[in-house]
Amino acid sequence: MGLFDMFKKKPAEPAAPAAPAAPDAISVVEEADTLYAPVSGRVIAMTDVPDPVFSGEVLGKGCAIWPDEEVVYSPVSGTVSVTMGHAVGIMGDNGIEVLVHIGVDTVDMNGKGFTGFVKQGDKVVAGQPVIKMTKADIEAAGHPDCVVLAVSNTAEFAEVKLVVDGESTVSAGTAVVKVAR
C-alpha cells in the first residue's frame, strides 16, 4: 500500500435493511385483570379453535379472533417474555401470563409472513403493535389465521372468563377476557 492509498475513499458498505416501522398504537383504557382483543374481528370461544391443543385449553383458557386486519396488538401491559415470529408471550404487569398466537400450525411457516415489532425483554403497553401478519401468506400456506389469546397461567386464577358473546365482532382493544383471583 502506497503512502496516499490510505487516504483514498473506501467503497461504501451496503446499508443494513431498515426494520419496518411499527404502526401506531391503539388507545386502551386498562382495567384490572382484563385482557383486550389483540386484533379486530369475530371472537370465538377457545373450545372452538380448530386445533386440539388450543381447543382443549392445554395452553390456557381465553379466546380466539378470526381477524379482519393484519396488525396484532398487545392485549395487556407488561414485559415480552418470548417472541417466535408467529407468537408473542407477555408477562402482564398484573401477573397474567399471556400467549398471543397467530394461526394454527403457523410455526411451519418459519417466520414467513410475520413481522415482529418487539423482542424479548421489551416493555409493552396494552394496544401497542407487537406483530404484523400477512393473511395471504397464511392462507397460501394452508393454515387457519385465527389469533389465539391464551392465559398460560390459568391454573393460578379462580376463573378466566370470556366477557363478550362468542361470534361477536370486536375492535382491537375491546375488553374480551376477565380474570378472577
How does this model look, in words?
The chain is mainly β and 181 residues long. 6% of the residues lie in helices and 35% in strands. The chain has two helices and 14 strands. The protein has helices spanning 52-55, 135-140; strands spanning 34-36, 41-45, 61-67, 71-73, 78-83, 87-92, 97-102, 114-116, 123-124, 129-133, 147-151, 159-162, 169-170, 175-180. The strands form three sheets. Strands 9-5-6-7-11-3-2-13 form an eight-stranded antiparallel sheet, with no helix packed on it. A three-stranded antiparallel sheet has the order 1-14-12, with no helix packed on it. Strands 4-10-8 form a three-stranded antiparallel sheet. A hairpin with a 4-residue loop joins strand 6 and strand 7. The N and C termini lie far apart (73 Å). Mean pLDDT is 90; it is low at 3-11.
Q: What labels describe this entry?
A:
181 residues, globular, disordered N terminus, three-stranded antiparallel beta sheet, eight-stranded antiparallel beta sheet, 2 helices
Shape: globular
Model regions low in confidence, pLDDT < 50 over at least 5 residues = 3-11
Which structural class is indicated by helix and strand composition? mainly beta
Q: State the end-to-end CA separation.
A: 73 Å
The major sheet is characterized as: 8 strands, antiparallel
CA-atom Rg in angstroms? 20 Å
Number of strands: 14
The neighbouring-strand order within the major sheet is: 9-5-6-7-11-3-2-13
What would the average pLDDT be, to the nearest integer? 90
Strand-residue proportion: 25-35%
Q: What's the total helix number?
A: 2
Order of helices and strands: EEHEEEEEEEEHEEEE
| Helix amount | under 10%
